[in-house]
């Protein structure tokens, strides 16, 4: 075991040292933060890192842009608009990037594994095999411990399919990010924002379903006089977005931070400039890697749990609205009798 | 074909501690958000309108004051309603 650890550490240091030396050869010296940011950022340029050698360039998928996307002059020359700034100029960037490919891969892997493991002998009550039992354990955990405990046994089962999809998809993306040559799609703000928008839509639909469209819209007015609606309606609408914003930032920051810490621990060898630093930084990086494995599950769990909690709160608001309506009508009767 | 059994009404006893606590706290969180949100919407709305109309600081001052007043009103109304419910 000890020999294996030493071998692992030496290989890691040698690989990193070789990559650094390669960088010197090109006359361009990337700093440790540059290397890390390049590694965690999204791009449509694919390359394969090879231990003890230069990375192999796999090629770039041509960008797909819709709208007014003429290149504009910047400090770095003529650049085509992309991302959020491009969207503000009316250019929608739909390029297939590293993280998009990771999402597709996660979806295909999930479809494959879940279809195989869930296809059991229906004549027997108890599923057999490790995969089927593992999936059943996770599905039951999401249904009993998340959906029913946060939404309620009456409405909970209705939202289990969404919660299971979110849980397994996030888990698959988080775990793929820990495999060599892969990327963490959940370390991208756009991906986590997309997932949070899905939860937002389901939460609002749950609120409308529970309170009715009239009750939902009435809730948005904050219960104040109509002359105050121009201020109160934006306040309530702004309040709706705080929860998905928290979901977006939590998942993104946790996944990105873990990877940056991992890279910086290895980068310490180059920052301090002595191979002996590897004796400390490599075991630490290995420990953080194991922690990241745990975090992959924890973050999928937290996102699903919070989604269930928010859906439960939206459902409860509708029920409370009903109670409140009854209470007010009772109150009215009381007044009439008095 | 037998008629579908009506779904059992939940009394909330199956809910987890966090869900129960969050549901209990939600009306108070909403009330506090009204207090803060009123000021936020007033300030941001006033700033944006001032920039758009070039009306100096007046809309910012006016809408901020109005936003804070509406926020306070919404907060106090919500707290009074919660007090009545108890």
From TrEMBL, chain A:
Membrane topology: Multi-pass membrane protein
Cited InterPro entries: ATP_synth_F0_asu (IPR000568), ATP_synth_F0_asu_AS (IPR023011), ATP_synth_F0_asu_bact/mt (IPR045083), F0_ATP_A_sf (IPR035908)
Keyword Ligase part of the UniProt annotation: no
Transmembrane parts of this sequence: 101-118, 162-182, 189-208, 228-248, 260-280, 286-311
Signal peptide (UniProt feature, chain positions): 1-18
Cross-referenced SUPFAM superfamilies: F1F0 ATP synthase subunit A
MF annotations from Gene Ontology: proton-transporting ATP synthase activity, rotational mechanism
Keywords, comma-separated and alphabetical: ATP synthesis, Cell inner membrane, Cell membrane, CF(0), Hydrogen ion transport, Ion transport, Membrane, Signal, Transmembrane, Transmembrane helix, Transport
One cellular component (GO) term of this entry: plasma membrane
Name of a matching Pfam family: ATP-synt_A
CDD domains listed in its UniProt record: ATP-synt_Fo_a_6 (cd00310)
Main location: membrane
Cellular localization per UniProt: Cell inner membrane; Cell membrane; Membrane
Subunit structure comment from the entry: F-type ATPases have 2 components, CF(1) - the catalytic core - and CF(0) - the membrane proton channel. CF(1) has five subunits: alpha(3), beta(3), gamma(1), delta(1), epsilon(1). CF(0) has three main subunits: a(1), b(2) and c(9-12). The alpha and beta chains form an alternating ring which encloses part of the gamma chain. CF(1) is attached to CF(0) by a central stalk formed by the gamma and epsilon chains, while a peripheral stalk is formed by the delta and b chains.
Described function: Key component of the proton channel; it plays a direct role in the translocation of protons across the membrane.
PANTHER family registered for this protein in UniProt: ATP SYNTHASE SUBUNIT A
Family according to the record: Belongs to the ATPase A chain family.
Name this polypeptide is given: ATP synthase subunit a
Species the sequence originates in: Myxococcus stipitatus (strain DSM 14675 / JCM 12634 / Mx s8)
Gene encoding the protein: atpB
UniProtKB/TrEMBL annotation, chain B:
The organism's place on the tree of life at top rank: Bacteria
Keyword Transmembrane helix: yes
Membrane-traversing stretches: 31-49, 55-76
UniProt cross-references to InterPro entries, sorted A to Z: ATPase_put
This protein's UniProt keywords: Membrane, Transmembrane, Transmembrane helix
Record protein name field: ATP synthase protein i
């Amino acid at each position: 075991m000890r020999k294996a650890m030493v071998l692992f550490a030496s290989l890691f240091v040698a690989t990193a040292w070789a990559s650094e030396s390669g960088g010197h050869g090109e006359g361009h010296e990337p700093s440790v933060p540059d290397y890390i940011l390049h590694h965690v950022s999204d791009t449509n340029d694919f390359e394969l890192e090879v231990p003890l050698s230069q990375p192999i360039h796999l090629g770039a998928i041509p960008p797909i842009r819709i709208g007014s996307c003429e290149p504009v002059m910047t400090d770095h020359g003529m650049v085509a608009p992309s991302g959020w700034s491009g969207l503000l100029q009316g250019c929608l960037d739909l390029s297939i990037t590293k993280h998009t490919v990771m999402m597709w891969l996660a979806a295909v892997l999930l479809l494959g594994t879940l279809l195989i493991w869930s296809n059991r002998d229906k004549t027997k009550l108890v599923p057999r095999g490790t995969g089927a039992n593992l999936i059943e354990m996770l599905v039951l955990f999401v249904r009993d411990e998340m959906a029913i405990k946060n939404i309620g046994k009456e409405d909970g089962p209705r939202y289990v399919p969404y919660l299971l999809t979110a849980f397994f998809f996030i888990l698959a993306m988080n775990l793929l990010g820990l495999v060599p040559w892969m990327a963490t799609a959940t370390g991208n703000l756009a991906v986590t924002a997309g997932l949070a928008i899905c939860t937002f839509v389901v939460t609002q639909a749950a609120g409308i379903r529970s309170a009715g469209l009239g009750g939902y819209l009435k809730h948005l007015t904050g219960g104040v006089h109509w002359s105050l609606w121009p201020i109160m309606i934006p306040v309530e609408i702004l309040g709706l977005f705080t929860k998905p914003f928290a979901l977006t930032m939590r998942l993104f920051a946790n996944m990105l931070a873990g990877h940056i810490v991992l890279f910086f621990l290895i980068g310490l060898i180059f920052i301090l400039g002595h191979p002996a630093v590897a004796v400390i930084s490599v075991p630490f990086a290995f420990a953080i890697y194991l922690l990241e494995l745990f975090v992959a599950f924890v973050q999928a769990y937290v996102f699903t749990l919070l989604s269930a909690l928010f859906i439960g709160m939206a459902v409860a608001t509708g029920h409370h609205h009903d109670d409140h309506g009854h209470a007010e009508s009772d109150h009215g009767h009381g007044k009439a009798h008095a | 074909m037998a008629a579908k059994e009506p779904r059992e009404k939940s009394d909330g006893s199956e809910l987890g501690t966090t869900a129960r606590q969050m549901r209990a706290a939600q009306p108070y969180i909403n009330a506090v958000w009204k207090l803060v949100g009123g000021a936020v919407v007033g300030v941001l709305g006033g700033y944006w309108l001032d920039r758009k109309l070039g009306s100096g600081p007046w809309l910012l001052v006016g809408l901020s004051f109005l936003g804070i007043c509406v926020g306070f009103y919404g907060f106090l109304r919500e707290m009074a309603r919660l007090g009545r419910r108890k």
